[in-house]
Amino acid sequence: MARSPATLIAGAVRLAVAAVFVAAGALKAHDPAAFATAVDHYHLLPYPAAAALALYLPWLEMMCGAGVLWARLRLGALNLLLGLCGMFAVALASAWWRRLDIACGCFGAGAGSRPALLLDLVRTLALAAACAVLLGRELRVGAPPDAAGG
After folding, report:
1. Res 142 pLDDT > 90
2. DSSP string, 82-103
3. Which of 7, 34, 53, 124 sees the fewest Cβ atoms within 10 Å?
């Protein structure tokens, strides 16, 4: 059976969202100490909380990224990713507003600057929008018949 263009586009967006979060999580999980330092540079959490977040968050991102591809887990994964994007957007906006000159920490170590933080915020809002659109589609049309079992 032929799939509609909207279904094909939604599948491509799901794949892109999944790839971004799995890759970002893997890069952070590879060096949790560097990620803990990046989280600490936001000055929003005490260091022990930043270190705990650095150990937990990359695995949550990778699991949610994979969950976006599995119909049975998709709603939960998209809800979690949308919430993570929202919280991170607030953290980025806060860092930008406070004129912090830091790297976002999203994809491992990188050069930090205020303009880069603004671009990171735009990217985060775009990912949040993609998650919201996919979530809305899932809630509106439900799982496709061929994915009902898995």
Report:
1. no
2. HHHHHHHHHHHHHHHHTT----
3. 7
